[in-house]
Design brief:
Mean pLDDT: 84
Number of helices: 13
Radius of gyration: 30 Å
Low-confidence stretches: 1-15
Structural class: alpha/beta
Helix content: 40-55%
Shape: flat
Number of domains: 3
Largest sheet: 4 strands, parallel
Strand content: 5-15%
Number of strands: 10
């Protein structure tokens, strides 16, 4: 059999029936175990926080059965929702990164559901608000720590060969098998490759009959090997343009009680969230998702509206004082208005305090530089401490900008870098922000080299791909407090 030993990543005993049965059993019990662990943790935290709070506040243990009821209800909402979302599947627990965001989101939804149910049942008055806050915060921390522990334990079990997400057999061309192995490193995903069959290469001049005969011989050997190794799935690693070969392989392996997967094309390596999408009978391969879901858009907009309104009320005396200083310092308007690209590259007019003697907004705009002679006396100080950016709160209220997002650039600079940096325009997939992930890392000021702009774009795209309200709060805090946020401010 044409099986390459370098790609047989499971030891021989792992291919035996006993360990194969153990792998199936471990995958089957894993979801149930994590489900029960979540339920037990939430109920236990409800009881512990309730008793502890009432002992500290009232000197007695409180109504323990009511704590149990709340815990069971919260656990049911949280755990059953996770079941429907497929959160308890074994492959999800080989990396920790996605868990924190998803756990925070679902636990917030759980709390909202509890409050709504308490209001509708007219029993919310029976529970202390202090205990509810304590229960929410402590349980959220407990769930995140639990996820981290489970991921670490699962990783150790995977390394020891005790758990396996799937046992697969590869068949395809040498180039495609090699690319699949090197790019995805399946063993890091808990996948055991129990065997591999390279299709025999044939010359372009070979007749159709000879090609068919060669392929049939390869497939016959592969079928015998698959029957012996009993993998969970077969991966066909072939160029998608080879439709005749793919169809023949699929027809052959349909005779086996096994999953058949068509491996990814090379171009899919560039996309991280590829999935099969169905709209009725229409099936398509979805390469990317919306930058923010509808719920996330609503969350971000509400945060912006409330935050901008509060900030403007608090900062009104400062705005008035700065406006007077700008007017006294030099001739010209108080505000500087310039066209920028916003969401989906729709132009809008950004508002800042005027810090220069010029009001450039044309086809060519010279970037500011240290000790720029165009700076006014008060303007230099306003730029140093980011105070000139405060009027952009009005842009946030009107919906042209967000508190946090990629910083907008002048139109002429956008057009220039869009030609030179392939993914530059993707920055406009979300609203621009007063501050951003790039700015708190010191990536601000003049972009006099392409490398500086590429680095800034890299940070902006990271923000888009990893957005959360927590990330926005973190960026705002670091904008105000971190020295890096004021680096290169001129």
């Amino acid at each position: 059999m044409n099986t390459h030993p370098n790609y047989t990543l499971a030891a021989r005993p792992q291919t035996g029936r006993m360990l194969r049965a153990w792998a199936v059993l471990s995958r089957g019990t894993f979801s149930g175990a994590i489900f029960l662990t979540d339920v037990a943790l939430i109920v236990a935290m409800s009881c512990c926080t309730g008793i502890a709070y009432h002992l500290a506040a009232y000197g007695d243990a409180g109504n323990v059965p009511s704590f149990v009821q709340v815990g069971v209800l919260a656990a049911s909402i949280f755990a059953i929702s996770n079941v429907f979302r497929g959160e308890y599947r074994l492959p999800n627990f080989f990396t920790f990164k996605p868990h924190a965001r998803r756990t925070i989101q679902l636990w917030n939804v759980t709390l909202i559901c509890l409050l709504m149910l308490g209001f509708l049942a007219r029993i919310s008055i029976d529970y202390s608000r202090g205990w509810i806050v304590l229960f929410y915060a402590d349980t959220l921390a407990g769930l995140i720590v639990l996820r981290y522990v489970i991921v670490r334990v699962t990783g150790l079990a995977r390394a020891a060969g005790l758990v396996s997400a799937q046992r697969i057999f590869l068949i395809g061309t040498g180039a495609h098998v090699g690319a699949f192995i090197s790019h995805y490193e399946p063993w890091m995903l808990g996948i055991n490759i129990v065997g591999c069959r390279f299709l025999t290469p044939v010359a372009a001049t070979t007749s159709a009959e000879e090609r068919r005969a060669t392929l049939d011989r390869d497939l016959a050997e592969a079928v015998a090997s698959v029957r012996s190794l009993e993998p969970d799935a077969i991966f066909l690693l072939l160029p998608w343009s080879a439709t005749a070969t793919i169809e023949r392989c699929a027809e052959t392996f349909l005779a086996l009680p096994i999953e058949i997967h068509l491996g990814p094309e090379q171009i899919l390596h560039k996309f991280e969230e590829v999935k099969l999408s169905r709209l009725g009978p229409l099936a398509s391969l979805q390469l990317t998702r919306m930058p923010l879901s509808r719920l996330e858009v609503v969350q971000k907009r509400l945060f912006d509206l409330v935050g901008a309104a509060v900030a403007l009320i608090v900062l009104t005396p400062l705005l008035v004082a700065v406006a007077i200083l700008v007017k006294i310092d030099s001739a010209g308007p108080v505000f500087f208005v310039q066209r920028r690209y916003g969401f989906n590259q729709q132009p809008f007019r950004i508002i800042k305090f005027r810090t220069m003697r010029t009001l450039d907004d044309g086809a060519v705009i010279a970037q500011a530089k240290p000790n720029d002679p165009r700076f006014t006396r008060i303007g230099r100080w306003l730029r140093r401490w980011n105070i000139d950016e405060i009027p952009q709160l009005f842009n946030v209220l009107t919906g042209d900008m967000s508190f946090v997002g990629p910083r907008p650039h002048a139109l002429s600079h956008d057009r220039e870098y869009e030609r030179r940096i392939s993914l530059y325009a993707r920055r406009h997939n979300v609203k621009p922000g007063i501050t951003g992930w790039a700015q708190i890392h010191g990536l601000r000021g003049a972009t006099d080299t392409e490398e500086k702009m590429r680095k800034r774009v890299e940070y902006d795209l990271f923000y888009i791909d990893n957005w959360s309200l927590w990330l926005d709060l973190k960026i705002i805090a670091r904008t105000l407090l971190s020295p890096a946020a004021y680096r290169n401010a001129y």
